[in-house]
Amino acid sequence: MPLQDKTKTIEANELREAMRFWATGVTIVSARHNDIQHGMTVTSFTSLSLEPPLVMVSLEKTTRTHGLVDLSGAFGVSMLREDQRPVSNRFAGLATELTNRFAGLKTFTLETGSPLLENGLAWLDCRVTERHAAGTHTIFFGEVIATRASEGAPPLLYFNRDYRGMQDSRDR
Which among 109, 101, 143 has a CA at the least distance from the CA of 126? Predict the structure, then answer.
């Protein structure tokens, strides 16, 4: 059936309502430029290619993290464990946009100097290779130049406006 009106768009609320049913992992995307570091909770992250090793992250243009990724040309990704809900909430807080969200948390760096959170599941250190404007966001493509991974903990998931755990049938 052909579309009747190709210019029709939906409201943000309609998309938000539908996308709440897309289950996703939870990450903290971080960057450092000079002596300033910042990070934010991000679920719009995905792997793009193994050769070359590429990932993609979408960041709202008005965020501090976006500005630091843009200036530094690099970003880090910390994949969160199921028990890190408070960390996700801390980095998602709009009220803390201008504060140091890393205060009191243990961090480390790999190659680019982007801060990574200890106690996560896995970490990627990325150099920005491309930027694409997309509405209120910028899509950053990053070449993964260093990784580290841990084992044994389930991931933190986000689904239907809430955090979820993962039940593996092998563990029953």
Answer: 143
The predicted-structure confidence for 66-79, as pLDDT tens digits, reads as follows: 999 999 999 999 99
pTM: 0.87
Ordered domains of the chain (ranges, CATH) = 25-158 (2.30.110.10)
Tokens of 114: 């982007």
In total, the chain counts a number of residues equal to 172
The DSSP symbol for 11 reads -
| Strand boundaries in 4-156, DSSP class E | 24-25, 27-33, 36-42, 45-49, 54-60, 74-79, 107-108, 116-117, 122-134, 137-149
pLDDT tens digits for range 1-45: 555 566 778 888 888 888 787 888 999 999 999 999 999 999 999
**Residue corresponding to tokens 């000079």:** 34
Residues 59-76 as b/e (b if ≥16 CB within 10 A, e otherwise) read beeebbbbbbbbebbbbb
